[in-house]
Specification:
This protein is α/β, with parallel strands linked by helices. The chain has helices at residues 31-37, 58-68, 80-91, 109-140, 144-161, 178-193, 196-199, 220-228, 253-266, and strands at residues 7-10, 16-20, 26-27, 42-46, 73-78, 96-102, 175-176, 208-213, 234-239. The protein has 9 helices and 9 strands.
Length: 268
């Protein structure tokens, strides 16, 4: 068995919660969410396996989480972490009490094209040019530290463009892993190209909630419609005046935490 991944613990009492960070390669990006939940819940924050030890696939990341998680818990995944949460719930359905998807990514071409169009509009011409410049350099550099720096810059650029009125940035909490990002994202692309995902999400048996900022460049309603074909029990709450990171949004934060806590407490 592979060496267990690192996991941070927040809070000591209450229901077990596992929060899954964004990226991929965005270790630490949900630490502020975990800390906000810690007074009421026992929260675990797994950190994605770094590149170079094992092949980084979605299945491997799910196995890593299974190795360190409680027998059953509520899972809250943000951005790529929401996608990992779906993979985990499909592979280990008995381990998931309920699943919350925050800012989930797309699973079909229509949703992807809409996301790209929204991102292009939010970045503007100069921002889009910088985005593609950073991405090109990230994909070609052989300097590990420089690659991680480029991924951090890329994440901050995109996050700022996806926010309405941010009171903080997850990029300030993140330790980027560029090699892990590139390797894992290649597997995300493969799974969708071969229709393995979202088709295997039909195995997800737990209650599922999408919490999605209405101003997120990821088109929540389109993504919801695709997922509901495989997960009919999926519920959706759109948060007005809110971008991709609801807990860091001035106008969306309260509505986000109210809906999230009501969901957690309502699952028996």
């Amino acid at each position: 068995m592979a060496r267990p991944i690192e996991v941070r613990e927040h809070g000591k009492h209450g229901p077990d919660i596992v929060v899954l960070h964004g990226g991929p390669g965005g270790q630490g990006s949900v630490v502020s969410l975990a800390a906000a939940l810690a007074p009421s819940y026992h929260v675990l924050e797994p950190l994605m396996r770094a590149a170079g030890t094992l092949p980084l696939t979605m299945d491997q990341h799910a196995e890593d989480v299974a190795q360190i998680a409680p027998p059953q818990a509520t899972y809250i995944g943000w951005s790529w972490g929401a996608m990992l949460g779906l993979t985990f719930a499909a592979l280990y359905p008995e381990r998931v009490k309920s699943l919350v998807l925050v800012g989930c990514g797309p699973y079909d071409e229509v949703s992807r094209e809409e996301h790209l169009a929204r991102r292009r509009a939010s970045l503007g011409p100069d921002g889009e040019a910088r985005y593609f410049d950073l991405l090109a350099r990230l994909r070609t550099t052989t300097d590990v530290e420089w690659a991680n720096s480029l991924l951090g810059q890329l994440g901050e650029l995109v996050e700022k463009s996806q926010a309405v009125e941010p009171i903080g940035l997850t990029s300030a909490d993140t330790v980027p892993d560029a090699a892990g990002y590139l390797e894992t994202w290649a597997d995300v692309v493969r799974l969708q190209r071969d229709r393995i995902e979202p088709e295997r999400f039909g195995a997800v048996s737990c209650p599922v909630l999408m919490l999605h900022g209405e101003e997120d460049t990821h088109p929540g309603h389109l993504i919801r419609d695709v997922l509901q074909a495989y997960i009919p029990q999926l519920a959706f709450i759109g948060i007005p005046a809110c971008g991709h990171v609801p807990w860091y949004e001035r106008y969306g934060r309260e509505a986000f935490f109210t809906a999230l806590k009501q969901w957690i407490e309502g699952i028996k």
